[in-house]
Write a structure and sequence with these properties.
heterodimer, A: 551 residues, alpha/beta, Rossmann fold, 21 helices, globular, B: 95 residues, alpha+beta, Alpha-Beta Plaits, five-stranded antiparallel sheet, 2 helices, 5 strands, 42% strand, binds thiamine diphosphate, binds magnesium ion
């Protein structure tokens, strides 16, 4: 068997059905082997999109996302997507072609040291120099990617190894290690802490989706009656409509969530990591709280905030052992009355389409059928996080750690391929869409029914907002008023488009977005002056929230 | 704070580079380094003295996370904080 065939077979044995990639010289043997395989290869139009689509596929499905790229520029183009997966702990295997082993280190054509370049943004990486190691390396790569705290693994495959022959191939199928069970003593301490607390709060992160612990978290919340705040990645881990869900915390969090954090006496951190967008000024974050920190990754516990009780291991097991009922009626009342008092107001006076309201309406109406929203990065991303309702964390795909503009469209492609029956909507901005707009061709080619809701404020809105607020309105390189006609662009790719300029067109646009069969781009013009509120200024404590100003 | 790490790892491609890169990126400056491959080339032992404002536990946990690393031990070269005196002189993390 040829090296390339071994790789393809090994992928099939891992249960891979879809790979995202782009061919080229050094990876040609793998593309040749693909011809005889059942694997579905999705030809994207930029390698960054291959990695980001693999990310969307993996985030939504929980399976390992796989991408291929050739050596040199193909491999370097993957890097942003790999880093994106690294920072949000997404399981991924990236396979790159490499020049033949004798040429490695000679500055050969399209040789870059992708093994070295990718090192800080992968969970692990392999350069496979011997065909004998190939089958086991692929299995190992998958195991590393999907176990423990997941992450991307790079396998660099030299061309001579890919075309070499091996008579007897031993495929590896050692089972994955199960997640460590949390320490019973720590769990017992946590139980006591919860029982004794007067103002406990659950701070739920992205690890809940990753661990598949949504059910356990909900049971825990229902059993204990403790209010919940979620991170950007934790959105949907408790349904947006759940009574005790106070919404997202942090920089663009809800007032009720941030107030609850600042007042609580016990913070139960479930698979979150005290990111700076969450904590604001770290020293003043949850100042009265003891902390219980649960995570699969010991390096996250007490990294930024010392934990009073650390539970390392499977959060599902830990949560199941913590069903106690503290006496917290007063606290719950306070949280819920804040929630009622600070509800978002959608009745805003404006002649423009009001994006938060449109998103709210869209997500409420979309709820009759499984819907996934894949976001780009900017104001529109925060509006999705604040105003859309989610029933599960897999339904909200957003680049949090890296904040990668251009994630949304390939992310949607990946999710749609992972779940052909779902309705997949990419919410994008006029800046972000241009970062991977070439993927409209992928949507067309595979006739994916992805819907694109493009909020056009003729600006790099989020940067514009910061310049307005923190750089004395000195606007620098944020104007996009010469945007192309996005509807025409979509149509040039063979994708139908609608234009939404006025509020009275919104109802009909939503109907079309939800009901049209194939792909559709809705080009929505919004007021460039509209900002994201509330906002905790960078470096400030979460109590210092800036509130909405009328436009 | 200055301390010495003793790391045992699988001698796989890039293992030492990963170790040094991780320490640098996480804010641990390297003051001294000595590393040897075992006789059978299977494993690699490294002794690294680092200096940082960050706590040693961060270095330990970050190193322990590396896939190649089998064991990491730390020796405190300097006991700057009185609080540290109560701690065992040698923390050991075996995987
Ligand atoms: C690849 C990349 N480059 C730059 C940034 C910095 N950045 C964050 S938000 C933003 C503006 C995004 O503009 P747009 O997509 O139009 O969204 P809006 O904020 O206007 O809704 C920029 C430039 C980024 N996050 N990612
Ligand atoms: Mg914009």
């Amino acid at each position: 068997m040829k090296g390339a065939e071994i790789v393809i077979r090994a992928l099939e044995k891992e249960g891979v059905d879809t790979v995202f990639g782009y061919p080229g010289g050094a990876i040609m043997p793998l593309y040749d082997a693909l011809v005889d395989s059942k694997l579905k290869h999705i030809l994207v139009r930029h390698e960054q999109a291959a990695a980001l689509a693999a990310d969307g596929y993996a985030r939504h499905s929980g399976r390992v996302g796989v991408c291929f790229a050739t050596s040199g520029p193909g491999a370097t183009n993957l890097i942003t997507g790999i880093a994106n997966a690294f920072l949000d702990s997404v399981p991924m295997v990236a396979i790159t072609g490499q020049v033949a082993t004798p040429f490695i280190g000679t500055d050969a054509f399209q040789e870059v040291d992708i093994f070295g370049i990718s090192m800080p943004v992968v969970k692990h990486s392999f350069l496979v120099r011997r065909i004998e190691d190939l089958a086991s390396t692929i299995h190992e790569a998958f195991q590393i990617a999907r176990t423990g705290r997941p992450g991307p693994v790079l396998v660099d495959l030299p061309k001579d190894v890919a075309i070499a022959e091996l008579d007897i191939v031993a495929f590896d199928d050692t089972p994955d290690e199960t997640p460590a069970r949390p320490d019973a003593h720590q769990v017992a301490i946590a139980r006591q802490m919860i029982e004794k607390s007067a103002k406990p709060l659950v701070y739920a992160g992205g690890g809940i989706r990753i661990a598949g612990a949504t059910g356990e978290l909900r049971s825990f919340v229902d059993a204990t009656g403790i209010p919940v705040v979620t991170t950007l990645q934790g959105i949907g881990s408790v349904p947006s409509t759940h009574e005790l869900n106070l919404g997202m915390l942090g920089m663009h969090g809800t007032k009720q969530a941030n107030l609850a954090v600042q007042e609580c006496d016990l913070l139960i951190c479930v698979a979150a990591r005290f990111d700076d967008r969450v904590t604001g000024k770290l020293k003043e974050f949850a100042p009265h709280a003891k902390v219980i920190h649960m995570d699969i990754d010991p390096a996250e516990v007490s990294k930024l905030r010392a934990a009073d009780c650390s539970i390392v291991g499977d959060v599902k097991v830990a949560l199941n052992f913590l069903h106690v009922r503290p006496q917290i009626d007063e606290w719950k009342e306070r949280c819920l009355s804040n929630k009622a008092a600070y509800e978002f107001n959608y009745d805003v006076k404006t002649e423009h389409v009001y994006a938060p309201k449109m998103l709210r309406q869209l997500s409420v109406q979309a709820a009759e059928r499984e819907t996934v929203i894949s976001c780009d990065v900017g104001q529109h991303q925060m509006w999705v996080a604040q105003h859309c309702q989610f029933q599960s964390p897999e339904a909200h795909l957003t680049s949090g750690g890296l904040g990668t503009m251009g994630y949304g469209l390939p992310g949607a492609v990946g999710a749609q391929l992972a779940n052909p029956n779902a309705r997949v909507i990419n919410v994008s901005g006029d800046g972000s869409i241009m970062m991977n707009i070439q993927e409209l061709a992928t949507i067309k080619r595979y006739n994916l029914p992805v819907k694109i809701v493009l909020f056009d404020n003729q600006a790099l809105g989020m940067v514009r907002q910061w310049q307005e607020l923190f750089f004395s309105e000195r606007y620098s390189e944020v104007d996009l008023s010469d945007n192309p006609d996005f509807a025409k662009v979509a149509e040039a790719f063979g994708i139908p488009a609608i234009k939404v300029d006025k509020p009275d067109q919104v109802d009909d646009a939503i109907k079309q977005i939800l009901e049209s069969e194939g792909p559709l781009l809705a080009h929505v013009m919004i007021d460039p002056r509209e900002n994201v509120w509330p906002l905790v200024p960078p470096g400030k404590s979460n109590t210092e929230m800036m509130e909405a100003k009328a436009v | 704070m200055r301390f010495t790490l003793e790391v045992t790892m699988t001698n796989s491609e890039g293992a030492l580079e990963r170790l040094l890169g991780r320490l640098r990126q996480r804010g641990f400056g390297i003051l001294a380094l000595n590393a040897d491959v075992s006789g059978d080339y299977a494993s690699l032992g490294a002794r690294i003295t680092v200096e940082s404002m960050r706590p040693v536990e961060a270095a330990l946990k970050q190193i322990a996370k590396l896939y190649d690393v089998e064991q990491v031990k730390v020796h405190h070269a300097e006991q700057e904080h009185a609080k540290r005196q109560n701690q065992p002189a040698e923390l050991c993390l075996s995987l």
